[in-house]
Structure formats: structure tokens, C-alpha cells
Amino acid sequence: MDVAHGRRLMRLRRMGRMPLISPRLWFRRVVFWVGALLVATVAVLFAQAANWSAAQFLHVIAGRPWLPFVLAPLGLTISFLLTKHVFPGAQGSGIPQTIAALHMHDQELIGRVLSLRIAVGKVLLTLLGLACGASIGREGPTVQVGASIMHAMGNLLRLPRPELRRALVLAGGAAGIAGAFNTPLAGIVFAIEELSHSFEARTSGTVFTAVVIAGATTLGLVGNYTYFGQTSAQIGNHAATEAVVLCSLAGGILGGCFSQALIIAAKGLPGWSGRLIMRYPVVFAAACGLALAILGWLSNGQTYGTGYDQARMMVENRAILPPSYALLKFAATVVSYVSGIPGGIFAPSLSVGAGLGSVLAPLVPAAPMGAMILLGMTAYFSGVVQAPITATVIVMEMTANQSLTIPLMATAFLSFAISRLICRRPLYSALARRFLALQGGH
Predict the structure, then answer these.
(1) 328: which of 101, 308, 337, 386 lies 20 to 30 Å off by Cα?
(2) In sequence order, what are the residues at sequence separation of 6 or more whose Cβ sits closer than 8 angstroms to the Cβ of residue 57?
(3) Looking at 284-397, which runs of residues are DSSP E strands?
(4) What global pTM score does this model have?
(5) Could you report how far apart the first and last alpha carbons of the chain are, in Å?
(6) Domain end marker among 190, 222, 254
(7) What are phi and psi of 271, to 5 degrees?
(8) CA 26 to chain centroid
(9) Number of domains in the chain
């Protein structure tokens, strides 16, 4: 009788460890699902708050052309001081920090980089930057916020193995992109191509599940929308060849120069200028704000904010911006990033690319304006981040256009190759390596 009872207990224990029955595994699943849902909800709320902040800035300065010369320097100075003294580690886009965390082994250090406190600071300071006219995006910060939320869930679950915690961080970053852009496929591709630089069987299911939950949550909260509107632009084979080569060349060169400029700035400018910036960083932040105001004045206010409205109007053929827009937006994004405040480069880069495509369109008369704008967005974005598959998928999903898949892909890979001639290391990887060195994390 005792033997039979012991066998029954053994069978019950074995059944309790089965994946479909185990209470411990079901608890992990539920916590993980809740984390993915939270990431998407925060991404949607962050997007709405970012749009509101940028709109408030434009509303306040309307009819007051002198006001940005006060608000931008003051706002960037306050944001820089808060970043340095209250939320240290919140500066920049957030993607390099997430990549760095994926390569760290010290759990305490990872906890500092992906703390919920830093995530809150990232959101608040990005909104502050947009409220004072900075040319920044909120997609990069959303990646770090998503990774931080999932890291907190990992702490709640007390996961025993580092690879499981890493999978959660990777899934949080991917879910952040999916929720920020409403582009689930782009979230998966971005996680593989940019965040992890590999496809691992152990983590793929975790990433896919997080992205699906984030996508479904975003769909439920804001509906099935396309980030930059919709376009049905198509292009013939002969015109496509000219357009691809032209956009790739311009986007690759400009994107490579942008990335190289940010990498140089992260290391510190050489000579007296670098020493002056290191000695007076607050004055430098204020000077960056003044430069933003000047660029905004030159562009009639078009360079302020994420660039989302400008890109959407160009994609939907509702407006044609002046040829100077692309270069002025390029300069405003560089100035915003090097000032030391939090903020991403995704949306501004896509906006610069849209402006670049509109400038190049008259050089290829046989190509529709809409097609040239999409090719310009893909070329410049691929040149900046040097992630051609992500660039292709993001532009396709954000504009609901699959008819240009082959030209977009060709543009992305050619632009990537040209950018590599100027900037030898991918921007996010280089910044992550720099961040790791400063943190002593490898």
C-alpha cells in the first residue's frame, strides 16, 4: 500500500512539472503576458503624450517668432540638468542602452541601466524635449522603457538563468517597437537584426509572443492605423533602377555622415572645442537650444518635434516641403542628440528621408513622387541605423505598401553598403560599446 501511494505521488510530481500543467510555469506565462500588455499600453500612451507635447509647443509659439529663442535654450538646459543629476543614464535614444544591457553579465549593473526609475525619466524628459522644440523621436526611448518593464517582470519571476532574463529584455525591446509604430513584423525583425544580431531558438518564441501581445493590445487601444498613412505608389522597372541608385547614393552618404557625427560626438570632440564642451556642458546645452531655434526659424517651424506630421503629409501627397527641409531637419536632429538630452532618432530620420526623396523626385520624372519619398525614407533610415531588413519592413508596414517591396529592399541594402564606407561601425552598436566601456560592463 505504501509503495502504491509513493508511486502515485511520484506520478503527480511528474505531472506537476509538465509544461501544460505546471503552476510555476503558468505563473511565469501570465506575468510575461501582463508585461507585454503593459509595454504596449505604455507605448500607446507615450505616443499620445508625445504628440500632445509637440502640439503644445507649436501652439504656444504661434504668432510669437521670438519665443523659441527663449523656450528651446531654457528647455534643453533644464532637460540636461535633470538628466545629469536626477535621471543619470537616461540620455540618448535608449536603444544603445538596451543593446548594452543584453551584453552585460552583472545583474546589478543591468538593473541600473534598465531600472523603472530610468524608464520614467526617459518618458518625462523626452516629453520635455518635445515641449521645447527638440527634433527627437519617442520610438528609441520606448525600446528602453519596454526592456525595463520586462526586466522588472523578470525580477518578479526570479528567473534563475541569465539567458531567460536576456530573452525577456529582448522581448521587451521588440514589443516596444511593435507598440510604438504598430508594426509587429518590424518589431521581430528589429529584435533579430539590431538588438540581438542573431536568431536564437531559445528566445525566438518569447520575442514572437511579446510582439503578438503588444500588437494585439495596440490594435485594441488605437485601432488598425498606419503610422505614416497609406500610399499605393508604384514604379516601373526602368524608373525603379534610376530611383534606387539615386536614393541609395544620397541616403547612404547622408545617413553615414549622420551616424559618424553622432559617434564622434559621443567620444568627445577633439581640440579646444571638445575641452570647452566638457568644461561647460550646461552652456553647450543652451547653445544647442539656440541652434534649434535658429533652424526652426529658417524652416518656418518645420524642424521642431518628431517630423511625423511632415513625413505623413509627404507620403499622402498632401504637402511638398521646401528642398531645404531635409538638410535643416538633419541638422536639428544632430543638434538635439549631441545636446545630451533623452530622445530617439527613428521618426526624425524617417522624416529626413521623406524630405530627401521629395528633393530627388524631379531628377527621375518617370517615378511617382510617392514612390520616391518611400525610397528616400528607406535609403536614409538604412544609412543611419545600418539595418537594411528593418528599414525595409518598417517603411512597408508604416505605409501599407507592398508593391514596392523589391525596390525598397534593393535601396536599403545598397544604402547600407554606401553608409558603411563612411561609418564603419553601426551607430547603435558603436554607441552601445561606448556605453559599456563607460559603465565598465565588459
Answers:
(1) 386
(2) 71, 130, 131, 132, 133, 304, 305
(3) none
(4) 0.88
(5) 58
(6) 222
(7) 75, -160
(8) 32
(9) 2
pLDDT digits (tens, 9 = 90+) for 17-43: 555 566 667 677 777 788 888 888 898
**CATH code: domain of residue 409:** 1.10.3080.10
- Provide the Cα torsion 113, 101, 266, 332; round to 10°: -80
- Is residue 80 very low, low, confident or very high in pLDDT (cuts 50, 70, 90)? very high
Pair (158, 305) in one structural domain: no
**Do 77 and 43 reside in the same domain of the chain?**
yes
Find all residues with CB under 8 Å of 280, minimum gap 6, and list them: none
Pair (263, 199) in one structural domain: no
Q: 140 Cβ partners below 8 Å, 6+ apart?
A: 92, 93, 94, 95, 343, 344, 345, 346
Q: Distance between CA atoms of 424 and 421, rounded to whole angstroms?
A: 6
User: What type of residue sits at position 380?
Assistant: Y
- Per-residue b/e over 211-232, b at no fewer than 16 CB within 10 Å? bbbbbebbeebeeeebbbbebe
**10 Å Cβ neighbour count for 139?**
30
Mean pLDDT for all residues in the chain: 84
Eight-state DSSP code of residue 225: -
Instruction: Write down which residue in 198, 222, 246 finishes a domain.
Output: 222
